[in-house]
Amino acid sequence: MVIDSIEKRDEMQPVFESAAEIFGLLANPQRLRILRAICEGERTVSEIVALTQASQPNVSQNLALMYRHGVVGRRRDGTQIYYSVKNELIVDLCRTVCTQVAMRQGEVMA
What we know:
alpha+beta; three-stranded antiparallel β-sheet; 3 strands; globular
């Protein structure tokens, strides 16, 4: 029994490590703002910059990181690159957590 439990835990280690990477990636307010900006449709870097009021280098750097981790996708159309959410489950997770935090802050302020 104990050996089976240890083997299952060892099998899950890569999953836990990947999940921790994603949570670490999402533990950044700027990246959450970027996700919010593209969660309803694809946008260019300039549009994301305007919506988040962050600098273009900052937005580009965060988009590149999220792209490498499979959180966002991108497509080229001429000279423009459009970014979109690649994994809707991540958006749902972020939305759920942010909604809960907002509700708790509302309770504290009331």
